Amino acid sequence: MHELFHPIFDNSEEKAALQQLIIALGSSGQHYFLRNDILHTFSQYCQQAQKPTYFYYSSSVGKLIQYTHEIVLAEDSTWFVVRPRIASQEVWRLTSDLAQFDSMPIDAFLDVSDRLVNAYEPNILEIDLSSFYEASPSISDPRNIGQGLAFLNRYLCSQIEADPQYWVELVYLALRGLQYDGINLMIGDAIPSGIHLAKQIQTAIKFLSSLPPEEPYAKFYIELQKLGFEPGWGNTAQRIMETITLLDKLIDSPQPAVLEAFVARVPAVFRVVLVSIHGWVAQEDVMGRDETLGQVIYVLEQARSLENKLQQEIKLAGLEVLGIQPHVIILTRLIPNCEGTYCNLRLEKLHNTENAWILRVPFGEFNPEITNNWISKFEIWPYLETFALDAEKQLLAQFQGKPNLIIGNYSDGNLVAFLLARRLKVTHCNIAHSLEKPKNLFSNLYWQNSEEKYHFSVQFTADLITMNAADFIITSSYQEIFGTPESVGQYESYKFFTMPHLYHVVDGIDLFNPKFNMVPPGVNEQVFFPYSQTADRDPNLSKHVHDLLFHRQDSQIFGYLDQPQKPPIFAVAPITSIKNLTGLAECFGKSQELQAHSNLILLTSKLNIDESTNPEEAREIEKLHNIINHYQLNGHIRWLGLRLPNQEVGEAYRLVADYRGIYIHFARYEAFGRSILEAMISGLPTFATKFGGSLEILEDKNNGFRINPTDLEGTAEKLLAFFQECDTHPEHWQEVSQWMSQRIHQKYNWQLHTSQLLALTKIYSFWNFIRPESSEARVRYMESLFHLIYKPRAEQILAKHMSCH
Question: Where is the Sucrose synthase EPBD domain (predicted)?
């Protein structure tokens, strides 16, 4: 690394440029700078100094600046956080005389950062988790991060090949341990060892070969049991033959594809818990609040898909003869003051399932004035440990046994999942959905300034605990893990950081550990489907939604359209600063040409300031009204402040497509973007922010549909260019529409998601079986952090709540 930038200090021009950059940054009066500020300042210097373009990009100092993600100006030196490649950050210190440029340890950088906020402590707690991952297999190529299942399959196959006899015994023990409520599955007492299993496989294959392929398992199960094979191999002679043959191949010649195919058939998952705490989790009238809507939809659809997939697996495994049924539970909180919803109902069956339920458990009665009501995700922390204990009892009673898998959703749900999984000793899957730390710049460094409102010290600690304790982590996109060459990933932001006066994280997560897996969600294709499927569209629903979008005058609808026939620019989002609808309105307002070509239609849940539930929301609503007035957009804009049912939202996408419109997701940052999937599968050409996971959804080779929400003029030009291309070549809109719809249908579907999720559960459960010591020490350390840091800080929030009420 030093050699790459060493020429800077041998070149007077480059050395002078670096010195001028540091001076320019220092003149701002700040000490801490992120990549955008650094690049902007360097670009200004190059322009003022009339440097050629190559100097900005290709000189040694230019390369240093391109790789630098943070700069800290200390009294006697300048500190650089350099990221030469994804998932790899280094700290370098440059002396004030530019004489030395040295690699520095992380803890030294964290000390310097603390001094910036006058919070240096020589004996602060240091959290370094690197030693807990040293014995684990590690992914070497950054391009394979997020493909943990494929990596583990290859790794396990290499281990089996290296010592087949030892691994045959391990596979035997794992299969021998499979049970359902005390009933042995797959292997019974008649097979006492792995060696005996290998022999019996040949006997079983010979027996099965004599049967008709479609012979039902119920007609010959007694013969198989005599050989030592219990239910679970299949429901027909052919299916059982295929499964046993896969195991035979795995023992004889281990291949990753064979291992994956065999593990997919092993009946090891019957009961699943999905933990989603802070949202309003229900199916009717309320489906989350603005801050939780996407998560609630995700969990509901995932639960339905899981239950359906498990029903299929149990049938194919031949376990119907035992009367086994899958059982899926969404665990959430019961809210007594439920505002007319079903959130005060303890048990609610999921529509279109046989045995999937919402189980609601109330928060402990610390203070009914608080716990009987909905509580913000930032205030929920004191109640989670007691909730987990209460939920454990109800889950065991509801299941009449232990679950096989617990999935946490968001920071609070993951903490409850961690506590439950630890007590019940079952597999724990972590799904963050969104990590608050990377969304809120400097939130760790200045955590004390916002502690009373956001309690980030508790949340970031919970994140650190759960991501390390989880058996595996699911992300919707690769960006969530390691970002892009230009931006740090959500999980990567936990690699090292300081929370002054609380602790230093020197090494907080191993991004190269195979626990990370990219498994994107699907979209409900019964609700969201292409506009061209006219036979599936309800004419009455279409007429109703068309009236809402284009004509109806209502207290919850603002604006009218002078020319409703123009193609709409459509956006669906809650009113928050991060979703940036105000930026979109300003982008539209500034472009007269865009207004001439199109209308802007916004679908939000609120329209008026008196409907807002927090100051930020009120500010955004007021700002949006002011922008509309300032640019005189009435006649060009419709703003619907309505919470529409999913069926109406789906038809809204299709109606916009009927008008040859487009969809736009203008967020400043988006971890994934559920509405992007919905719009694309509906056949809407979709433009989305380039900051976050939408990069992968679009897979846009020429960047034509990726937008920079900070570049209003550039975005307007890009939208206008698309409309003009469609005017010139009408088939262009159709081609884009079909491509986007097919991409979502093929890659982002719940069937694929669920298959991968269950495969992950089985392979990581097997991994924990054969290597329990590799995770036990790490999880014990997480328990220590829970009791040492999390719990005392959560108790402080509780004390505040009690004193306020």
Answer: 147-235
pLDDT value at residue 703? 61
Per-residue pLDDT band at 430 (split at 50, 70, 90): very high
Question: In the chain, how many H helices and how many E strands?
Answer: 33, 25
Q: CA-based angle 97:101:106, to the nearest 5?
A: 120
pLDDT score, position 191: 95
Strands laid side by side in the 101-104 sheet? 32-34, 68-73, 77-85, 88-95, 101-104
Work out the average pLDDT over 426-444: 91
Question: Average model confidence (pLDDT) for the chain?
Answer: 91
Residue 287 has pLDDT above 60, yes or no: no
Question: Which residue from 287, 320, 318, 322 is spatially nearest to 301, judged by alpha carbons?
Answer: 287
Neighbours of 721 (CB within 10 A): 11
φ, ψ dihedrals at 125, nearest 5°: -65, 130
Instruction: Say what the alpha-carbon torsion angle 291, 294, 299, 301 is, to the nearest 10 degrees.
Output: 150
Which of 377, 385, 355 has its CA nearest to residue 459? 377
Considering only CA atoms, which of 110, 109, 69 is closest in space to residue 88? 69
Name the residue with tokens 């070149």: 11
Which position has the higher pLDDT, 155 or 802? Answer: 155
Please provide the size of the chain in residues.
805
Question: Is residue 646's pLDDT more than 80?
Answer: yes
Tokens of 50: 């009339």
Q: Evaluate if residue 370 carries a pLDDT over 80.
A: yes
Measured in whole angstroms, how far is the alpha carbon of residue 103 from the centre of its chain?
33
CB contact at 8 A, 306 and 754 = yes
Q: Please, what's the b/e burial string for 666-684 (b: 16 or more CB within 10 A of its CB; e: otherwise)?
A: bbbbbbbbbbbbbbbbbbb
C-beta of residue 680 within 8 angstroms of C-beta of residue 686: yes
At 472, which helix (H) or strand (E)?
strand 472-475
E strand map for 318-465: 327-334, 347-349, 356-362, 405-409, 427-431
CB contact at 8 A, 150 and 255:
no
Q: Which range (300-314, 364-378, 748-762) has the least confidence?
A: 364-378
